[in-house]
Each structure stands twice: as C-alpha cells, then as structure tokens.
Write a structure and sequence with these properties.
Number of helices: 4
Helix content: 25-40%
Strand order of the largest sheet: 1-2-3-4-5-7-6
Low-confidence stretches: none
CATH topology: Aminopeptidase
Protein name: Putative N-acetyltransferase YhbS
CATH superfamily: Gcn5-related N-acetyltransferase (GNAT)
Organism: Kutzneria buriramensis
CATH architecture: 3-Layer(aba) Sandwich
Keywords: Acyltransferase, Transferase
Pfam families: Acetyltransf_1
Number of domains: 1
Radius of gyration: 15 Å
InterPro entries: Acyl_CoA_acyltransferase (IPR016181), Bact_Acetyltransf (IPR050832), GNAT_dom (IPR000182)
Mean pLDDT: 94
Strand content: 25-35%
Amino acid sequence: MRLRSAEPDEAEAITALMRRSKAHWGYGQEFMDRAREALTVRADMIRDDRVVVAERDGVLLGFYQLGGEPPAGRLEDLFVDPTAIGTGLGRILIEHAVAAAGQRGFHSLEWESDPNAEPFYLHLGAERVGEREVSYGRVLPVMRIAVHLPERAK
C-alpha cells in the first residue's frame, strides 16, 4: 500500500471512487443525484498536499482531504473503495490524516460523518460533538478527533 499526494489529473478517478464508496451503502439514485456536487473532487481542489490517495499496484483504493487553517482542521473527505472496505485501509487513512494534521499545526479535526461510518470513527477515538444539516438535505453526525502536535509545532 502506498500513500501519496494526489495529482490534479486524478480528480475524475477520485470522484468515481467517492461515488462508488457512497453507493456501496445502499443509497438510491435520487440521493446520489442530490449529493452529486458534494461527491465531487475537482482538479483545483487538489493542492498543497491536502488530498492524499492510497494505491496498490497503481490502483486507487482510497483517499482523504484535509481543509481548514490552524488550529481548526477539517477532514473534508475520507473514502475507501468498496473492494477495500474492511481491510484496515480506513484506519490507515485516518491515522495518516491525523498525523498530517499535526504537521500542519491543527489541534483537532472535525467532519460530518456518514451515519454508516460513525461507529468506525468512534472506534478509532473520535467523538460525536453534534449534528449538522448539509447541502443535500441530510442531518449528519459531526465528529471530532484530537490531534497530537509534533514537539516542534507546540
């Protein structure tokens, strides 16, 4: 498994992975159409090493995207291809995201979680800190995880 910064020309492949991953949980076409914009990564969003992909043998299996400015970080996205769900890749991605957030000087990461993913995030040490209505008409759990800053960033 290799984790690396995404390239802008991978936006279409990342978007396709994101949509496959969301559809895996049984969401119908009407929902997927409403969420289309939220389930899109554009080339201009891939900058400053904030989008990290996981690949094996050149095959894209997952990614995450960080946002925000210190001290308040955001986990904008974290998706795993359905073929890799249950393999430990989600844990690898969240741990990498938290470490990268610490390098950027974030004290915590916050995000809206799909309800299907909330137990996964709770298991990894995140806490539910509220709920938020999102642009495509759903109320989602808001999760937060503490980031341990490296010694030089304290």
